[in-house]
């Protein structure tokens, strides 16, 4: 092998064996001048050891030994070439010690060697569980070879140690204590046992690693105080257990207290000794004495003695003088040493003593005049069984059970009873109380209080303008203070214009710079808090000459010839006013012709009434009324004329507006000498058609007009009417706009935008949805009703064979809902739809047109039923026919019919329209004169609408079972106890070209079929309704009546026909 050119010659030996172990020589022969050369090489064949072992021990075994014994460990490495090197390790740390001895010897196999190493060890506790390793190192080994054994050295445990408590520390009773005893080392590990005062209490221990541990856990008790706790540790190598101990200090509270009283029965004047002793405690307990109300009492002395469990017992003594006030007093002994809660024991003292009154010696009781009173003088005593006696001025008062009904003052034990207090009951009353220990008496004074009443106050203070007025007011009562009496006047500047000087039971008032406008009543008020306040008025009257009242009602007077006319003159002034009357400069004096009366209306208003009897035309004209007093004279003119229609009302104005109503007010004009009523008219701006509402009650000058549309602007006018006619309507200059809830809601939403709660939005949305559904339902209902109405009209038209039709809508605003506004009741008259006649058509009938407006009234109704009847229609007298305005009464709403339902309905349908005449059914174009034998009836003008309602206070005539009244011909006030709405009972209608029914009878009365009923029948017509039919084309003719007894249809049927247009 090698390269001859380069002079390299190598030898390669494969699979070397021990035989190849020799010296090799490379020789190079001579060449040319070169001498031969050679080189030697020694080949050593390495043989690794065949085994490594610790003599007499199996590899990995444990060697048992005791602390202090010597151990010899021999490590043998066999068959190595050259001899192997041996190194010792303990826990993988090389041992370098002089006690290691190494030797080498020939092995059993040729040319191989054995190596032996001896290690001598003295057993120590730290050798326990230690691994001793013999390692053979040889160049033929890639890694050293090892053999090892483990030592198990037995030795005693270390001394025990207690942790968790240090001597001298304190533990509270109930606190958890954890004592740990730990012993480290030892083979085997130690057993640990706990002892308390030489008594074994815990022998359960556990081992972890190289230590033993016994944990004793308990809650400290009083018995643990100064107890010795010892822990012992031992194993097989210990002859005497090793010990550790502690002494525990426990703080504990006393468990209970004991309180004793000596002597047991206590009476005033004695000394009482109370002792308190606590149980043993550590540290010592502090004792505190408390009285029932929490007051701390200082003891007479305190002491201590040794107690159980090395604790201390505390004692305390309390001494007090016995008084009646000690009876029932709770004495408490309280102990605490800062450990646990305080403990206490209490005893209630029982003192035997005679009655004691709690009230002071000058005890007084306030009682109120006129009321019952009870005075309680209950005494305290022990024993509590007592008897009482009461005296007044030395006289015994009767006991309640012995008294009779006339004894007003009695007693029941400690209670003095006065059934009704009188002023003379004031004074002293004595009460005696007695028990087994003795008796005692006490006095009480009754102070009778009674309401303050004004005893001195002027009724009038009359003074000149510009002066100061002084008022004085005195009161009597009990009690009286400087605030009992004072002055006041509503609407007067009491602070700026007056000064009050109060006194006890008196008050003075000064009013400065008096003017005429200061005239009025000042109130003196006395109020001491008992009963009602006493009030007396003192009028401040400023002197000035008479001022005449020129109101239209007073500057005009009216009376018909032959009647009594009254002229009224009114003036204001002070002092008292006297009146005089004259005509054309001639004073008038009392006579058969003239009568005079004067009355005082209020403190400064006087009224004079002159009566002119048996008026003649020459009496009409101007009269002078002269009013005079010491300050001067004034006069006014009064015009006397015949009765006439009224003047228009004055000063119509809007007072308040809601979403569907307007509250209007006005002043009355001259009534024309007759009782007047009012009618409102109104319309929406932009709408030419008026609606009307009669004011009810008729004597008011304010009215709430309801049923208006939301957010709509209206114009309003008003007129007055009486039996002789109507006034003009006021100009349409009064306007008002109803409020809109949507506008209010939107305004609220704008104010709260951004922070409106979701619930409001949800509520508004829900309400809107409900309103939408309701509107749809109403529209559907309207369409259904309208269709039914149309069908009924076609059926009626086919039955009658007439081409004439009349449709009159009667309605009332929905807001009324057949209810009555608290003070007013409106009757709404509206021309809302057109009707045709003779081919003509008109959308609206003005006031002077011949068509009669139909009215719908909302009348208070108790039973909730509606029925319809007829009324007698006739002129008041022949002279009035065709010229006067007639009125119909406003009837009640509830009537029961006696007419059969089927016959009644058929009759209504047959008479819905008339054939062969020009008149609308239910409307008259001419006035029927009154029959000579008939009573007075309503007059109906053919050229003007029928007035609804009539003037109030009608007179009544009773003929048989028919009750009639006529407000046009009878003076007011003659109706007696009858209601102004008692109906006439019949509707008499003249017949032309015959009567709708049988021929007139010999009595001059014609029977007639029932006709359509424009108004509800009054209650008085139930059971005897009367009807007539008429032909308006005829001239005036006597009234022919016919009476028909009938039973009406059901309420549902009547309302159905009304809806369909048959009842108009």
TrEMBL record:
<feature type="domain" description="Ig-like">
    <location>
        <begin position="355"/>
        <end position="447"/>
    </location>
</feature>
<dbReference type="InterPro" id="IPR013162">
    <property type="entry name" value="CD80_C2-set"/>
</dbReference>
<feature type="domain" description="Ig-like">
    <location>
        <begin position="451"/>
        <end position="536"/>
    </location>
</feature>
<keyword id="KW-0393">Immunoglobulin domain</keyword>
<dbReference type="InterPro" id="IPR007110">
    <property type="entry name" value="Ig-like_dom"/>
</dbReference>
<keyword id="KW-0812">Transmembrane</keyword>
<dbReference type="InterPro" id="IPR036116">
    <property type="entry name" value="FN3_sf"/>
</dbReference>
<dbReference type="InterPro" id="IPR003599">
    <property type="entry name" value="Ig_sub"/>
</dbReference>
<feature type="compositionally biased region" description="Polar residues">
    <location>
        <begin position="956"/>
        <end position="972"/>
    </location>
</feature>
<dbReference type="Pfam" id="PF07679">
    <property type="entry name" value="I-set"/>
</dbReference>
<protein>
    <recommendedName>
        <fullName>Nephrin</fullName>
    </recommendedName>
</protein>
<keyword id="KW-0472">Membrane</keyword>
<feature type="domain" description="Ig-like">
    <location>
        <begin position="254"/>
        <end position="348"/>
    </location>
</feature>
<feature type="domain" description="Ig-like">
    <location>
        <begin position="160"/>
        <end position="247"/>
    </location>
</feature>
<feature type="domain" description="Fibronectin type-III">
    <location>
        <begin position="648"/>
        <end position="741"/>
    </location>
</feature>
<dbReference type="InterPro" id="IPR051275">
    <property type="entry name" value="Cell_adhesion_signaling"/>
</dbReference>
<keyword id="KW-0325">Glycoprotein</keyword>
<dbReference type="Pfam" id="PF13927">
    <property type="entry name" value="Ig_3"/>
</dbReference>
<dbReference type="InterPro" id="IPR003598">
    <property type="entry name" value="Ig_sub2"/>
</dbReference>
<feature type="domain" description="Ig-like">
    <location>
        <begin position="49"/>
        <end position="150"/>
    </location>
</feature>
<keyword id="KW-1133">Transmembrane helix</keyword>
<dbReference type="Pfam" id="PF08205">
    <property type="entry name" value="C2-set_2"/>
</dbReference>
<dbReference type="InterPro" id="IPR003961">
    <property type="entry name" value="FN3_dom"/>
</dbReference>
<feature type="transmembrane region" description="Helical">
    <location>
        <begin position="759"/>
        <end position="784"/>
    </location>
</feature>
<dbReference type="InterPro" id="IPR013783">
    <property type="entry name" value="Ig-like_fold"/>
</dbReference>
<dbReference type="Pfam" id="PF00041">
    <property type="entry name" value="fn3"/>
</dbReference>
<feature type="domain" description="Ig-like">
    <location>
        <begin position="552"/>
        <end position="641"/>
    </location>
</feature>
<feature type="region of interest" description="Disordered">
    <location>
        <begin position="952"/>
        <end position="985"/>
    </location>
</feature>
<dbReference type="InterPro" id="IPR003006">
    <property type="entry name" value="Ig/MHC_CS"/>
</dbReference>
<feature type="region of interest" description="Disordered">
    <location>
        <begin position="822"/>
        <end position="846"/>
    </location>
</feature>
<dbReference type="InterPro" id="IPR036179">
    <property type="entry name" value="Ig-like_dom_sf"/>
</dbReference>
<keyword id="KW-1015">Disulfide bond</keyword>
<dbReference type="InterPro" id="IPR013098">
    <property type="entry name" value="Ig_I-set"/>
</dbReference>
<keyword id="KW-0677">Repeat</keyword>
């Amino acid at each position: 092998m090698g390269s001859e050119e380069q002079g390299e010659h190598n030898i390669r030996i494969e699979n070397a064996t021990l035989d190849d172990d020799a010296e090799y020589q490379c020789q190079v022969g001579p060449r040319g001048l070169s001498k031969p050369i050679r080189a030697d090489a020694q080949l050593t064949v390495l043989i690794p050891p065949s085994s490594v072992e610790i003599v007499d021990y199996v590899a990995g075994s444990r060697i048992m030994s005791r602390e202090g014994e010597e151990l010899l460990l021999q490590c043998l490495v066999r068959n190595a070439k050259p001899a192997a090197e041996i190194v010792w390790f303990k826990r993988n740390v090389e041992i370098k010690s002089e006690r290691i001895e190494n030797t080498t010897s020939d092995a059993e196999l040729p040319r191989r060697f054995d190596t032996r190493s001896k290690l001598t060890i003295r057993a120590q506790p730290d050798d326990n569980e230690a691994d001793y390793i013999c390692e053979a190192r040889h160049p033929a080994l890639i890694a050293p070879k090892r053999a090892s054994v483990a030592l198990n050295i037995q030795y005693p445990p270390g001394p025990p140690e207690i942790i968790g408590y240090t001597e001298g520390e304190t533990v509270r009773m109930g606190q958890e204590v954890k004592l740990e005893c730990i012993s480290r080392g030892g083979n085997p590990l130690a057993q640990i046992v706990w002892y308390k005062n030489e008594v074994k209490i815990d022998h359960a221990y556990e081992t972890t690693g190289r230590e033993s541990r016994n944990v004793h856990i308990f809650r400290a008790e009083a018995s643990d105080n100064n107890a010795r706790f010892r822990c012992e540790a031992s194993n097989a190598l210990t002859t005497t257990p090793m010990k550790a101990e502690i002494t525990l200090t426990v703080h504990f509270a006393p468990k209970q207290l004991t309180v004793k009283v000596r002597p047991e029965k206590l009476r005033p004047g004695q000394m009482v000794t109370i002792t308190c002793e606590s149980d043993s405690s550590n540290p010592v307990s502090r004792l505190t004495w408390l009285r029932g109300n929490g007051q701390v009492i200082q003891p007479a002395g305190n002491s201590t003695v040794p107690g159980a469990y090395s604790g201390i017992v505390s004692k305390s003594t309390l001494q007090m003088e016995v008084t009646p006030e000690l009876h029932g007093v709770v004495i408490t002994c309280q102990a605490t040493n800062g450990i646990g809660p305080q403990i206490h024991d209490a005893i209630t003292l029982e003192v035997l003593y005679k009655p004691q009154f709690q009230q002071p010696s000058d005890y007084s009781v306030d009682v109120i005049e006129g009321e019952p009173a009870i005075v309680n003088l209950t005494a305290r005593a022990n024993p509590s069984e007592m008897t009482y006696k009461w005296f007044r001025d030395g006289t015994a008062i009767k006991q309640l059970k012995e008294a009779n009904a006339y004894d007003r003052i009695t007693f029941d034990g400690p209670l003095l009873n006065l059934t009704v207090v009188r002023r003379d009951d004031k004074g002293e009353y004595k009460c005696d109380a007695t028990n087994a220990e003795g008796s005692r008496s006490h006095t009480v004074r009754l102070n009778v209080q009674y309401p303050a009443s004004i005893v001195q106050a002027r009724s009038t203070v009359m003074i000149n303008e510009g002066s100061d007025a002084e008022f004085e007011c005195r009161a009597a009562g009990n009690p009286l203070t400087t605030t009992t009496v004072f002055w006041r006047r509503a609407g007067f500047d009491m602070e700026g214009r007056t000064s009050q000087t109060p006194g006890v039971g008196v008050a003075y008032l000064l009013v400065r710079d008096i003017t005429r406008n200061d005239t009025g009543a000042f109130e003196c008020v006395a109020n001491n808090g008992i009963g009602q306040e006493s009030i007396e008025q003192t009028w401040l009257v400023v002197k000035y000459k008479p001022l005449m009242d020129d109101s239209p009602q007073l500057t005009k007077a009216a009376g018909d010839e032959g009647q009594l006319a009254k002229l009224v003159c009114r003036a204001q002034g002070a002092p008292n006013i006297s009146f005089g009357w004259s005509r054309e400069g001639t004073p008038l004096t009392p006579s058969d012709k003239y009568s005079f009366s004067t009355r005082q209306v209020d403190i400064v208003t006087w009224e004079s009434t002159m009566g002119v009897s048996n008026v003649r035309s020459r009496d009409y004209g101007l009269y002078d009324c002269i009013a005079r007093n010491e300050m001067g004279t004034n006069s006014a003119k009064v015009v006397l004329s015949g009765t006439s229609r009224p003047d228009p009302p004055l000063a119509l104005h809007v007072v308040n507006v809601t979403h569907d109503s307007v509250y209007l007010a006005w002043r009355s004009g001259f009534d024309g000498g007759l009782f007047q009523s009012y009618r409102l008219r109104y319309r929406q701006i932009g709408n030419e058609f008026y609606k009307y509402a009669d004011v009810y009650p008729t004597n008011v000058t304010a009215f709430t007009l309801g049923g208006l549309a939301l957010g709509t602007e209206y114009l309003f006018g008003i007129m007055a009417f009486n039996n002789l006619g109507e006034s003009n309507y006021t100009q349409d200059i009064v306007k008002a706009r109803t409020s809109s809830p949507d506008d209010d809601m939107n305004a609220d939403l704008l104010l709260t935008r951004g922070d409106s709660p979701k619930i409001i939005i949800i509520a508004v949305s829900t309400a809107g949805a409900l309103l939408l559904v309701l509107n749809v339902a109403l529209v559907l209902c309207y369409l259904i009703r309208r269709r039914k109405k149309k069908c009924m009209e076609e059926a009626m038209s086919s039955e009658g064979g007439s081409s004439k039709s009349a449709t009159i809508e009667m309605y009332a605003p929905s807001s009324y809902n057949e209810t009555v506004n608290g003070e007013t009741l409106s009757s709404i008259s509206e021309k809302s739809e057109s009707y045709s006649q003779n081919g003509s058509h008109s959308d609206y009938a003005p006031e002077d047109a011949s068509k009669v407006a139909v009215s719908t009234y909302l009348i208070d109704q108790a039973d909730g039923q509606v029925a319809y009847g007829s009324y007698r229609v006739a002129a008041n007298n022949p002279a009035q026919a065709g010229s006067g305005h007639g009125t119909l009464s406003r009837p009640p709403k509830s009537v029961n019919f006696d007419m059969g339902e089927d016959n009644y309905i058929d009759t209504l349908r047959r008479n819905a329209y008339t054939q062969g005449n020009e008149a609308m059914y239910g409307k008259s174009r001419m006035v029927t004169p009154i029959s000579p034998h008939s009573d007075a009836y309503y007059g109906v003008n053919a050229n003007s609408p029928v007035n609804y309602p009539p003037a109030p206070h009608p007179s009544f005539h009773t003929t048989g079972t028919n009750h009639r009244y006529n407000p046009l011909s009878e003076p007011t006030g003659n109706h007696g106890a009858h209601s102004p709405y008692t109906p006439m009972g019949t509707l008499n209608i003249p017949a032309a070209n015959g009567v709708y029914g049988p021929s007139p009878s010999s009595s001059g009365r014609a029977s007639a079929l029932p006709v359509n009923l424009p108004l509800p029948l009054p209650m008085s017509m139930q059971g005897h309704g009367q009807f007539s039919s008429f032909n308006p084309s005829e001239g005036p003719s006597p009234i022919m009546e016919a009476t028909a007894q009938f039973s009406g249809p059901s309420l549902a049927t009547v309302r159905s026909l009304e809806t369909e247009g048959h009842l108009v």
